[in-house]
Amino acid sequence: MNLEQARYFMVEQQIRPWDVLDPKILDILMKTPRHNFVDKEYTSLAYSDIELPISDSNKMLAPKVAAKMLQALAIQDNEKTLEIGTGSGYVTALIAQLAKEVTTVEIAPEIQQQAIQRLTDYNNINFKTGDASQGWDDNQYYDAILLTGSIQDVPETYKEKLSLGGRLAVVTGDAPAMTAKLITRVSDTEWSEETLFETVLERLVNANENSSFEF
To answer: Which of 69, 65, 1, 66 is nearest to 35 (CA)?
Structure first.
């Protein structure tokens, strides 16, 4: 199988038709070998429009969903970012190419360790392990935050972690009608909210009872 050609088709047949047209996003998608972030048994499916398994209960975001959310975040090369849900490390790699620095948090140490091994080429990633379902208390502000699992309602703690002008991309609501949103901090006490698209995503671990996490 020609993986380079498969990656090209992913961008042209999945990503562009979903109105992801930002040249920076398309460029990093073309440059980043997604097949290096999947288990070997799924190599042939690495560029398919599906959520590939990471473990028994965890999955990668579909490529077009990840791309659409990154486009909305509009991360700049001088910005600090926070990712909740390291997962396979693929989205982490994409963010690391856009941002000055990315802090990524994963609840499962074994999953994050595997991602660390895949991300040795990047020197601007800070790996953290812990439960970030209700927030991440590191006394830092971020220009962009991405939650890669869904939540019913946005925790105020994440809105408060945004710097002025900072953006939060998140999927909220209940299946089968969840909504991807972009929340922007416009002042010390005000945030704007934009609806991006409809989707369905498993819950962030511990965000709700009997939940699991997709990323």
So the answer is: 1
